[in-house]
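Model it.
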Amino acid sequence: MLLEVLINNRNIALSRERLLDLVWGYVFEGDVRTVDVHITKLRKKLGLGEYIKTVYKLGYRLEI
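Modeled.
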């Protein structure tokens, strides 16, 4: 689902909070850094390290 959200919003920087809302569909009570863990797993498992960019102090962007 996270990858789907990134694809649908390609080349658009999304905050961690926005990603949590779009992927999990509710206000997340935990740490927003959980998104970082899922992004790291996507990068490693699918070899997307060069495409999923970290936007400093904001979140992430899928660049295609």
